[in-house]
Design a protein that fits this description.
- This is Membrane proteins related to metalloendopeptidases.
- Residues 1-23 form the signal peptide.
- Residues 66-158 form the M23ase beta-sheet core domain.
- Pfam families: Peptidase_M23.
- By secondary structure, the protein is an alpha+beta fold.
- It is 15% helix and 31% strand.
- The protein has one domain: Distorted Sandwich (Glucose Permease (Domain IIA)), CATH 2.70.70.
- The strands form 2 sheets. Strands 1, 2, 4, 5, 6, 8, 10 and 11 form an 8-stranded antiparallel beta sheet that branches. Strands 3-9-7 form a 3-stranded antiparallel beta sheet, with no helix packed on it.
- Strand 5 and strand 6 form a beta hairpin.
Amino acid sequence: MATAVIGIMSMAAALGAPIQAVSADAVTRSADAASAAPGYPWSWPHTGPRLVIEPFRAPAHDYGPGHRGVDITAPIGTAVHAPAAGVVAFQGVVVDRPLLTIDHGSGYVSTFEPVASELSAGATVQAGDVIGMVDIGGHAPRGTMHIGVRVEGVYLNPHPLFGEIPRAILLPCCSD
C-alpha cells in the first residue's frame, strides 16, 4: 500500500499536479449540493476533452489559499455552453480577464473565464445554449477555461454538478 501511495505521489509530482487530501465528508457535501442543483446533472460546458489541468482545492477558511473551481482544457475560440438554465448575472472584464456569470436559481451561480460573450446581464439562457467563446486572459493557463460554482456564496467542487465525482485511481507503481 505504501508503495502505491508513493508511486501516485511521484507521478503527480512529475506531472506538476498538486497533492491534496480530501475528506470523505467534503466529497459527500459536494455530491449532496450538486444533486440539489437546478437542472442536475448539468451539461459539460464544451464538447472537447474533459481534461482537468488544475483541480478544485477548497480553502481552509474564507480568505485562505485554494483553487475555487477547476481549470479544464479548452482551446481559444472553443464555444462555451450553459451547463444549466439560468439568467446571466454578469458579463464583462474583471482585471484582465473576460468572464460570464450565470445565476441558476436556488443559490447556484456559475462563472466561466476567460470567456468572451455578447450576452448581457439579464439574458435568459437554457442548458446547452452557446454563452460565449474561450478567450485569453486571467490566471488560468492559455488554452484552458476556469469553471467556478458557488452555492449561497460558498465555492464547491463543480465536478459533481456534471454527474462526475472525481475519484483517486490507483495505478501500478513499479515492477520488482
